[in-house]
Every structure is written in C-alpha cells, then in structure tokens.
Amino acid sequence: MLLLPDYRVRQRDYLLAISRAMTARLELEAVLRMVLEASVSMLTGQAGMIALLEADGAFHIRAAYGIHPASFGHFEPLLSNIIVRRDGSIFIPEAERILRRLRRAINVPLRQMVALPMAVGGEMVGVIFVFRAYGGNFSANDRNVLESFADQAAIAVHNARLYEAVSRERRRLEAILEHSADGVMILDSEERITKFNRALGRISGWRPEDAIGRPHDEVITWAKREPGPSLGEALESGWPYRRDKQDTLYVEGDLLRPDGTTISVGITYAPLMDDDGELLNIIANVRDITHFREAEQMKSMFISAVSHELKTPVSLIKGYASTLRREDADWDRETIQNSLAIIEEEADRLASLIENLLEASRLQAGGLKLELSDVALDKLTERAAASFRTQTTEHTITVEFPPDFPVIRADERRIRQVIDNLISNAIKYSPDGG
C-alpha cells in the first residue's frame, strides 16, 4: 500500500474542499476564509490575505489571516503595485523592498511572500498572498499543485460572487415587490399563487400567508366582470401561446372580498416563458380603480349637466331667431326688440358657460392665472346679492359682515364668480324660499 506524505495528503484534501465549494451555495466571506486558511496551511505560512479586484479597478483586502485589520493600510503600496499581465499572471515591482517595509511596519517576521493569482476564463478575480517566516523554493510539482489550487479557488470565489450578486438582486426585487403601491401576484404554471404582496392584501382583503399556495380562482373571484375573458377562459382558449393574442391580458371588474364587500380593480396578467416557449409563471399587477371609476362617473355627470346647460340658451336663441324670420308674420318694433334682447341675453349666457368651461380646463391644466388686487369682500358680496335680488321674489338675500372686516388680496373677477355661483345655486336648489 502506497502512503502519501502528509503534505501531499493535505494538498489533496484542500483541493477536494475547494472543488466542493465550487458547487456549494456558500457566502463569499465563507469561501474566502476557507481558501485563505487552506492557502496558509498548504504553504506553512504565518499570515495571509486575499485581495479581490473590485469594480473600481483596484485590489481591496477582503479576507485576512494573522494580520490585524488596523494594519491593512500598510499593504496599500503592495496592492497598488500589482501589474496584471495579459496571460493572467501578475508582477509586483520591487516586491522585496515592499516586503521589508511591511516587516518593519507591522512587526511580523515576513521573510517570503507567495502571490497566487486567481483568474477565471482569463479574467482576473484576485490574488492570494501568503507570508512565511522563512524562505524556500518550490518544486515543479509544488508549483503545479499551487496553480491548480489557485484556479480552483478562483472558480469558487467567482461562483460565490455570482451567488452574492444574485442574492442581492433577489432581495432588491423582493423589496420592490413587497413595497409596491400596486398589488402584485405571481402564479406558477398551474395557476397557484406563489407570491402575494402586502398591497394586494389590502386591496383584496386576503392575508398574504393565507393566499399563497391557493389556486388563483379561489382568491380572485368576481362579483361583476367587464366584457372579456377571465384568466381561466383565456388560458383555455390558448393564451399566451396563440400568436394572434397580445402578450398581456387585462381583466377589469368588481372583485369580491372575503368579507362580502366588493372593490373595483383592473388586473394585467403577463406571462413569463422559458427558453423553449413553455409557461413558467404568470405575473399579475392588480390596481384599485375605484377612484378612476368614480372620476369617470363624475365626468359623465358633468358632461350631461353641461350639455343640458348649453342646450337651453341654444334652444332659446334658435327659437326666437326662427320666430323673427317667419315671413307670414309682421312683428311690431317692441316684439322685435324684446326678442332680440332675449337672444342677446341668452348669447351672453352661452358665452359665460363656455368661458366657465375654458377656465375649468385651464384650472385642471394648471394654467389659470390670477390677477390679484385689494378687494373689499363685504362690498363685493353686497353688489352680487343686489343683482340676484331682482331675479327672485321668493327668497330673501341678506349680507352680514363684521364692521371691521379687512381688505383682502384676491382676483376680484373670480371671487365674484364664486359668490355668484353660490347665490345662484342657493336659489336654484331651494325653490320654496328656504
């Protein structure tokens, strides 16, 4: 039976440990510690460190053995002098002089420095430094083993870095998902819920922990749905595989909550396919459209009311103009004047309505400009009341202000418009003089 020397056994064990680390999902710090401890032990060193090449193009110490963090600054001349050759090897000018300075600065017996470059696919990852208290040469076999170890360590560190980056991105995406203002739900290929954020919990009334794992149709149930297919119906008809269909599916309606109440929502479903075109997940974005629907309803009511208001003066103008144009009638001057006065009055009313609409549009667009001046609000209100007293015999309009009411800065024309609207509405909606 052939017995390997203890040094060779340790080399084999370290290579095996690093090989395992390549396929293990270890944290970067754990991989660096393992690689460094193995390196120092293999080379019978007293201290060591691993410097990784970071995004800023410089080497930074990420792991140390036998070196106090307070001493890291003394290694800056060493790290800044690393030259990376095209073949992936490294060269450190004046390495002996730098080592002597380090020995004096940190008071550690550093007689020899071994630098093992770590590279993957020709891309520099970092450098393993091992410091020994004695000098010595390495055999060709030793060098081959060390190079193999450095290559394996580079792959392990590279994998750990990728895993760290993926984990960081996953945490970022989960934070975005969880704190999104819209409801977000992720379904698997069997339409079961795998993700359900807090916003969707508030919208739907389901607790995320209760919704996850349930079928989609058990959580998303419609009290009323707008015309169009539901998710289940769309899937049965071939979505998202049919080319004549859009990539996303939109469903809108009143969602039934567990407590029996409903809420208006719009859900956009987006498929996530694998490289072979098979469905992996469905990502659903759920938005509360209650306020949108209320705004649409108010808009419809507004348009209806405006149409009615515009129709009245137009009808009167047309009626009186048609009457005056009748060829079979011979109108006296007084009738003509009265008819023209009404036409003029209704035309002014129509112009006022149109101006109000334009001002409402400017106000919504943020383009309404105010012409500020000193306004005696008590006198302005009295003038407005006086003009309306002549328009009604069933209402008593009184104005009360404190005697020392101050002058204010305002747009007099628009303040008068507000007061006129208030008085006009009061007369219109209290026909019995209330």
Order of helices and strands: HHEEHEEHEEHEEHHHEHEEEHHEHEH
Measured on Cα atoms, how large is the radius of gyration? 41 Å
Report mean pLDDT, rounded to a whole number.
84
Q: How would you sum up the global shape?
A: elongated
Q: How far apart are the termini?
A: 116 Å
Write out the strand line-up for the largest beta sheet, numbering strands in chain order.
8-7-12-11-10-9
> Class by helix and strand content?
alpha+beta
Helical stretch tally: 13
Spans where pLDDT lies below 50 across 5 or more residues: none
- Main beta-sheet annotation: 6 strands, antiparallel
Kindly state the number of beta strands. Answer: 14
- Helix fraction bin: 40-55%
Question: Which percent band covers the strand fraction?
Answer: 15-25%
Structure description:
The protein is built from 13 helices and 14 strands. By secondary structure, the chain is an alpha+beta fold. The strands form 4 sheets. Strands 8-7-12-11-10-9 form a 6-stranded antiparallel beta sheet. The chain has a 4-stranded antiparallel beta sheet with strand order 2-1-6-5. The chain has a two-stranded antiparallel sheet with strand order 3-4.
Task: Name some characteristics of this structure.
single chain, 4-stranded antiparallel beta sheet, 13 helices, 434 residues, alpha+beta, 6-stranded antiparallel beta sheet
Topology:
Blueprint: H1 6-23, H2 28-42, E1 47-53, E2 59-65, H3 76-80, E3 83-84, E4 90-91, H4 95-106, E5 112-120, E6 123-132, H5 140-178, E7 183-188, E8 193-196, H6 198-204, H7 208-211, H8 216-219, E9 222-225, H9 231-236, E10 249-256, E11 262-273, E12 279-288, H10 290-324, H11 333-365, E13 373-375, H12 377-389, E14 408-410, H13 412-428
Antiparallel strand pairs: 1-2, 1-6, 3-4, 5-6, 7-8, 7-12, 9-10, 10-11, 11-12, 13-14
Helix pairs in contact: 1-2, 1-5, 2-5, 10-11, 12-13
